[in-house]
Amino acid sequence: MRITELFTKTSKTAPADETAKNAQLLIRAGFVYKVMAGVYAYTPLGLRVLENIKQIVREEMNAVNGQELIMTSLQNPEVWKTTTRWSDEVVDVWFKSKLKDESEVGFGWSHEEPIMEMMQHFISSYRDLPTSVYQFQTKLRNELRAKSGIMRGREFVMKDMYSLHASQEDLNAYYNSVIEAYKRVYERLGLGDDTYVTFASGGAFTKFSHEFQTVCDAGEDVLYLHRGRNIAVNEEVLDEAVQELGIDKNELEKVKSAEVGNIFNFGTEKAEQMGVYFTDKDGNRQPIYLASYGIGVTRVMGVIVEKFADDKGIVWPESVAPAKVYLVRIGGEEAVRHADELYDELTKAGVTVLYDDRDERPGTKFADSELMGIPHRVTVSDRLIEAEKYEYTLRASGETTELTRSELLAKLG
Questions:
Q1: Cα–Cα distance between 127 and 166 in angstroms, integer?
Q2: Does residue 94 surpass a pLDDT of 90?
Q3: Which residue of 61, 66, 90, 326 could cross-link 369, Cys pair, CB 3.0 to 4.6 Å?
Q4: Domains 3-308 and 325-412 share a fold
Q5: C-alpha triplet 369, 370, 374: angle, nearest 5°
């Protein structure tokens, strides 16, 4: 993609009311556009990042036999009333409205009940179980706190998966396999070393849950770590969790963290509330076991920015970056020809390139490349052409070297 073809432009400033570093940098770099507090639009560059995150998640969910679908955003109140979660006293983040016929409708904040309502039309026997479905969807939650940029939005993209089982043992086995899949996701996103499976409250979902928390100074949660035993506990359940896990509170390290995922084991509670049963091998009707598994895709994007950004701008891990290479062109017609040829060659080789073909000062191009956080920068200039070299800079470290064409292609291949 050529910079001259992008409608977005970088900026030296962010909206005055935007205090979160992740949103400030994403807005300045042209990845998001702020519509209102907690609500952001994603530009072509921002969408590329989201799609890269989604693809990593998709591959790992497919690896545990998840089947992708998409449910509706509009929600039938009657389905949620069966579990009491339509009540604002039970779930306080609903956006609700009325249709033209004055009937009430909700906007999806989660999908356990709709999934169960749909699945009862397809599952009747133990032979139909287990099954697991997931989606990527925009969720709407009426959050009181929308001060952390895209890390806590009122409108956000989420991956939510739901697994249905014939027994607690089968659910437990699958639940553990998803924990391992989540670990692989965060490792591939570059967050693996600082992301912990965390004992936490289930909130509006169930009594307890497992969260995936990434150590992050900009996070809204407080985590207690036992690094030796790889145990993490959310502060909100600290005393109860310490007792259940049999650990010494004095051995725990207090850190700030950001939630990047969570999973909930509902057992048969939802099925019993909603009357969703299957017939077992002996012909008896049994309630279905349910678990749900969430990853905040847009939230993860924000956490990555917060974790890796430096004083120059964003630093994307290569796995999620909107392009692998930022190609800078400096000079006259000869530089144009060489840069165009390199752009075409890299693109044909499957290397994603953001080509800065603007008539701008070199300093502006270099500053924009650092702000936008593309992992590798390659500079073509009249001076370098004469030496038959290319200037290569690694964004994460700032280390710069001069490489021959063959050396450059080998590094980027």
A1: 9
A2: yes
A3: 326
A4: no
A5: 65
* pLDDT of res. 266: 93
User: Region 52-64: what's the mean pLDDT?
Assistant: 98
| Range 122-140 average pLDDT | 97
In this predicted structure, what is the pLDDT of residue 334?
Answer: 92
What CATH number has the domain spanning 325-412? 3.40.50.800
Q: What is the DSSP letter of 128?
A: G
Omega before 44 within 30 of 0, i.e. cis: no
Mention every residue, 6+ apart, whose C-beta is less than 8 A from residue 76.
105, 106, 114
213 Cβ partners below 8 Å, 6+ apart?
Answer: 195, 196, 198, 219, 221, 223, 232, 234, 257, 258, 259, 260
Judge contact between 288 and 167, C-beta under 8 A. no
Q: Please report which confidence band the pLDDT of residue 204 belongs to, taking 50, 70 and 90 as the band edges.
A: very low
Summary mean pLDDT of the chain: 94
Strands 231-234 and 208-215: unpaired
227-232 long-range contacts, Cβ below 8 Å, gap at least 24? 227/253, 230/196, 231/199, 232/196, 232/197, 232/198, 232/199
Spatial distance between the Cα atoms of 162 and 66, rounded to a whole number of angstroms? 9
245: Cα within 13 Å, side-chain hemisphere: 23
CATH no. of 3-308:
3.30.930.10
Question: Domain coordinates of the chain in residue numbers?
Answer: 3-308, 325-412
Could you tell me which residues are beta bridge partners of residue 194?
Answer: none
